[in-house]
Amino acid sequence: MEKPSQQPLNFFEEFLQSNKISLLKERMINDFIDSGRYMGIESIDRVKGIVRFNDVYYDEQSDGPIEGITILSFENHLSHLLKTEFEIAKKYLDNTIADITKQGSNPSEYIWLQLNLLSKLELKAQTVYEDTPNVKDVITRLSKHIGEKYLYENHNSALKTVNSQTSAEDPDNFSPNSFLWDAIDHDSRIEQLNKLYDLLTANPKVIDCAKEDFINAFSQKKVVDGIYWCIKGKNNMTSKSSLFYFLEQLNQENFIQEVPSYDLNKKVEYVFRDIDGNPLKNIRQSKSNNSTSPTGKEQIDQILQDIFN
């Protein structure tokens, strides 16, 4: 799928790359000092992000200007920043969904991509900004806005096609632990996944599972029995290194929506099983011991080349 050059959640994605609280405090204080918009600074607390300064303001009782202490607070500064970025993201999301609908297309694909990204950002915010809960709160508000406006029954029913055309848009069947095949639309995804399923289940089998479960596993839908990984290593056990190689190729070649490294183990555990249908064990260790030339590499490479042939 061709990615837009500008995304509505860019600010929050960048903001969550690392904790930027200390940097923002310094920037706020330095920008204020450079501005010269004060009569004199009383004190600066760079740890808490508080500046006390002399200023002139209007006093209602005396009906005139008086001099007094004013406080610049990073807490208020951050709240204003998050509120502003929330409104920008919400407006961009609404405008994009409206544009997709005006073009006669179903916006569900775009909506679920944004919801999936917001879900990941919420989890990341809990860790990166553990001591700043309002960061996670504003992301949760964006998810709630999309859900209430476009997915659930309310007075605004103009876009209820979101839940009516394909089961992929059914909120009850949605799973953030499944993968998402990156295609231009739902029909293209199903067509490509059908072909990939046929290639992977042809002898010698790479996987064994029901086609519905396979398609669900790459459509962010709930998986029932899971995908059995059939490639064996030299020890005659399920080759987890070949599984991680397969997923790494899907990730690198943009066949699937990018999966962050911190999220991969959870998805593998949810979607895949060993050759006997049992849950995979030692997933974290297998990932760290990943091989660039695992058993079945040539077969996997050929299958991925054949998808669009």
Main pleated sheet: 3 strands, antiparallel
Number of domains: 3
What is the global morphology?
A: elongated
Question: Can you give the helix content as a percent range?
Answer: 40-55%
The H-and-E topology, N to C, reads as HHEEEHHHHEHEHHEHH
Mean pLDDT: 83
Round the Cα radius of gyration to an integer and report it: 25 Å
What is the strand arrangement across the widest sheet?
A: 1-2-3
Percent of sequence in beta strands? 5-15%
**N→C terminal distance:** 17 Å
* Class inferred from helices and paired strands: mainly alpha
Total beta-strand segments: 6
Give your account of this protein's structure:
The protein is mostly helical and 309 residues long. It has three domains: 21-76, no CATH class; 81-173, no CATH class; 186-306, no CATH class. The protein is built from eleven helices and six strands. It has a three-stranded antiparallel sheet. Strand 1 and strand 2 form a beta hairpin. The protein starts with 9 loop residues before the first helix and ends with a helix. The model is unreliable at 1-6 and 153-169 (pLDDT under 50).
Task: Describe the structure using short key phrases.
about 300 residues; single chain; 6 strands; elongated; mainly alpha; 3 domains; 3-stranded antiparallel β-sheet
